[in-house]
Write the structure tokens for this entry.
Amino acid sequence: METAERFDRLIAAIEKLAGALDRGALFCVPATVSPQAVAPAPSGRTLYAWFDEYLATYKAPAIKPATLAAAVRTVRVHVKPNIPDMPLEAVAGSDVQRALNAIPGTRLRKSAYHIFNGSFKKAARLGLIALNPMNAVEPARHVSKPGRALTREQQAHFLAALKGNRLKPLYEFYLLTGCRRAEALAVAWDDVDRAAGRVRIQGTKTANAARYIPLFPALAELLGGLPKRGGKVFAATLNAVTCNFRRLKRKYGLTFRIHDLRHTFATRCLECGIALNAVQKWLGHSRPSTTADIYQHVLTDFEKSEAAKFNPAFAL
């Protein structure tokens, strides 16, 4: 009798469970929708307006003014002309891809890609768009061409070609400091500390780019011969320097870039036997390995010349 009662209770429990399954009441979980599947309300922003807002609000506080100016110019000159303005949420990956494909030069294309990618990533995080169109865009790639230093003959030819050129002191400053193009133009007279024997360079590229360069005798002589007109040492713009150097290249058949003057400075330093970590600091590289990788060929040649000096006192 007891066994029959237990059996009846078991059958009743099974019937109750079956009824619950039929009603969908068992294991019922409130319906949820992935946030990515829910289209946000239209942000009211257009693509062009979002570019401007992104650069001014989210990038400007985190990057140097020169870097910001370059990004603004990239958007104005290379991005906007290649993609029509439209509601931000309407931009498709194919729109971005066509815009990138229309930009000449891999370096410019990569810069534009980073702006597209950063702005849309921020828009997605803020909930301004449902899907990031950059997920369907191929990354832009650029392989930098290795710089090369001027030989001593090329350097002498270049200095001779500068005779009468109004920017001659600036080019000599590049050769004596290894500054990047914009860094030299940012140097103020207040940065020249004769008492401490050094010049402060306000970096424009990395966190370690701000640095001090020794006031070498030749550098002190150069600066001592310049008139002090205004706060800056060199009264020139980036565009003026670029145009001036182009004229020099056409007139004298120069085959190098302004940036190669920086490589020339580093090479002359290493040829003189100056320690790698000192050259690294003067160039504003974040790690000695960066300097070593760029100038490995110089180090190898220097080692060969040093090995030639080996002359043991004992005979084999």
Q: What stands out?
A: The first strand starts at residue 192 and ends at 193. The radius of gyration is 32 Å. The chain has two domains: 47-136, 152-305. Residues 48 and 95 are 14 Å apart (CA to CA).
